[in-house]
Design a protein that fits this description.
The chain has 15 helices and 15 strands. Helices cover 38% and strands 17% of the residues.
């Protein structure tokens, strides 16, 4: 049973109705005070009622993961409730990003661009929002759909996939891989459940079939397959002029010889379309987009504990500044080397574009002032420490006062 059915209880609250009415307008700036345990329930109910995509920002990565898990409980594991994770890449550090995390980020971006897709709820930390990614225009222009009967140039198509970050292997048995055997092309788009096998007759696509990545056996025919980027740092798809301008501004005066030689060599390799070991180190050179560019401006922004979010964002800026200073002091980084993260003030500018915003503050917070503030009628449930007799007495007393009592438990036999 999904807990979303409990949303009707909140919908009868005058305070909730006032909040909902404000967010249904074309422009809104509202604040809601709610106890921490009730925040996921409130967000899930609002999202269901509004019928609009919602971006929920939490202060730290662990806050976003926990909130996403709780929202899945209240929405019945709705597949439209998405987590936009942050990579482990720190500004100016050479780290290899987890491929699964990168692919999840790309899949969320692709979902946000879906023209006919139903409204989604995206949960992200302040770090995830500030991390740079592909420009929206680059993502859209590189994404393409292949149809049965279409004429294609095989070499051009394979080169396009390579520039989009797909790796060529003997078999396409994992997202982000592709392969070629004569006139047969296999590709596993990073947002797809199964890979697709494209059979060519000359330059014409004769058939497209999904296939099992383990057995490599075809399962069903398809009319088309859509291929989206497989990586976030794609030097071959970036604006060459902007990249060269950024490179020209780098000052290697304080860099040691080894660091300068390595950086120049790797940048030249990337500009030529070749791979390097840690491409995300150069994310700031080739990327300037964020998830905010993909989120619709008419959607709803929910800032979960805004004071903590701003503190976390400024903290990221401070750590990035310290890392930059240390690297430059050691001669490992040229001056003016672009960061893989936006500064928090730039993120705030992007947030202001979203027309409907709700700040959710915890109970007793000082931020709730002015007529736009709404205090939702929640209270923390008492604890009974396994004493069912005390629980039964409390239920009887509440029922006697006309309250409705709902007991939710993962061990239903204990209530029999």
């Amino acid at each position: 049973m999904s807990l979303r059915v409990l949303g009707g209880l909140l919908e009868s609250s005058p305070e909730y109705k006032r909040l909902l009415k404000s967010l249904r307008g074309a422009y809104a700036r509202v604040r809601a005070q709610v106890i921490t345990d009730a925040a996921p329930f409130t967000l899930a109910t609002l999202w269901s009622e509004l019928g609009s995509s919602m971006l929920v920002i939490a202060p730290r990565p662990e806050d976003a993961r926990r909130l996403h898990e709780q929202l899945l409980v209240w929405t019945g594991d709705d597949a439209r409730v998405l987590h936009f994770p942050e990579t482990e890449t720190l500004p100016f550090e050479r780290q290899v990003s987890d491929l699964y995390t990168t692919q999840r980020r790309i899949s969320v971006l692709s979902t946000l661009l879906g023209q006919d897709s139903p409204p989604v709820m995206v949960v992200a930390s302040s770090t995830a929002v500030s991390q740079k990614t592909l420009l929206r225009g680059t993502f859209e222009s590189s994404t393409h759909t292949l149809h049965t009967g279409e004429e294609v140039e095989m070499d051009d198509l394979l080169d396009r996939w390579r520039m989009m970050g797909y790796r060529f292997e003997p078999s396409a048995d994992a997202p982000g891989l592709c392969s070629r055997r004569g006139g047969i092309l296999d590709v596993f788009p990073v947002d797809a459940e199964m890979p697709s096998r494209i059979e060519l007759w000359g330059s014409e696509i004769e058939s497209i079939r999904h296939f099992d990545p383990e057995t490599q056996l075809s399962t069903e025919l398809a009319d088309s397959v859509t291929v989206i980027p497989a990586q976030e740092t794609l030097s071959g798809l970036s604006d060459r002029g902007d990249t060269e301008s950024a490179i020209a501004s780098l000052d290697f005066a304080r860099c040691n010889d080894a660091a300068e030689a390595r950086i120049l060599e790797e940048m030249n390799l990337l500009l030529d379309g070749s791979d390097v070991e840690e491409p995300n180190f150069y994310s700031g050179l080739f990327n300037s987009g964020t998830v905010l560019d993909y989120f619709p401006s008419h959607g709803v922004l929910a800032m979960y504990r805004p004071s903590d979010i701003n503190e976390a964002g400024r903290g990221t800026d401070e750590r990035a500044g310290q890392l930059r200073a240390a690297k430059e002091r050691r001669g490992e980084l040229p001056s003016h080397f672009p960061s893989s993260h936006l500064e928090w003030r730039e993120v705030e500018e992007g947030l202001d574009v979203i027309k409907r915003r709700m700040d959710i503050t915890p109970w007793g917070a000082q931020e709730l002032t002015g007529p736009e503030g709404v205090v939702l009628p929640f209270a923390s449930a008492p604890g009974f420490a396994g004493k069912l007799d005390a629980f039964a007495e409390e239920v009887e007393e509440l029922a006697g006062r006309g309250h409705r009592v709902l007991a939710v438990t993962s061990s239903s036999k204990r209530l029999v």
